[in-house]
UniProtKB/TrEMBL annotation:
Name this polypeptide is given: Serine/threonine protein kinase
A Pfam match: Pkinase
Keywords assigned by UniProt, alphabetized: ATP-binding, Kinase, Nucleotide-binding, Serine/threonine-protein kinase, Transferase
Secretion signal span: none
Domain of life: Bacteria
GO molecular function: protein serine/threonine kinase activity
Domain (Protein kinase) ranges: 1-271
Listed PROSITE patterns: PROTEIN_KINASE_DOM, PROTEIN_KINASE_ST
Amino acid sequence: MIISVSEVSIVYKGKNILTEDQIIIKEFYPKSIAIRDLDNKTIINRLPSSKGKFDALKQNFLHEAIILQQLSHDNIIKYISHFEENNTAYIVTEYYDGITLNQYLKSIPLHKRHSLFNSIFIPLINALHYIHKKGIIHRDIKPSNIMIDSKKNVFLLDFGSAIFYKNNEEASIFTTPGYSALEQYSKKAKQGIKTDIYGFAATLYYSLTDVVPIDISQRLITGKISSVKSNNRKITLLLSMIISWSLALAQRKRCFSLNFIKLALLIDKYFK
């Protein structure tokens, strides 16, 4: 059963034939340059000239499996296996019965969003602290990459853009309008913990306002972004200021630790 389709992959819900547990299978399928062969399984390049691009994209895809193998945290999607077959690659992870954060927020009035601080955002901060200590940055934090299951547990999903930032590896450009930091639009720009701080703050901004932060292309012209408090009066001035600091365009001017956001969330919750 197909769950979602992106430019480089297809995500299926499957079943482990030994345990009968439900699982997620992510298949590498770069639809712009690949097609199914006559067996409806094997992946082939549309043109011989695209083989180099196909191979490079597949290596990037397998890099996600390498990242996930390093991680074991209650709030991070759990890796099971990965393998290559049918001239493509697959990543297998645990299945979670739930909905993404952007869907979940629809059921919670804006003036009650502070109730999510302890259950969603602080656990996510803890998960990010964990991966950062491993030398990894996620680089694609956004509401659609955060899952809340039927038991109200939260999980960070999709490590397809993640890198080992301490290795100074060149980062491919993967961006999401409104949620990606300025440095993510360049292969040469240094990326690090502050890159994830931007994505997390943008996600928090949306969660507290129902407004996606102004995209980088527009902010480069105006240089400004409206505060969270101007869109949600229930939020404390401190939290609003910390989020704005975390969304600074220039890395050197941006909040340098998720602990500031965590403290602001705890203080905001205390005054409710």
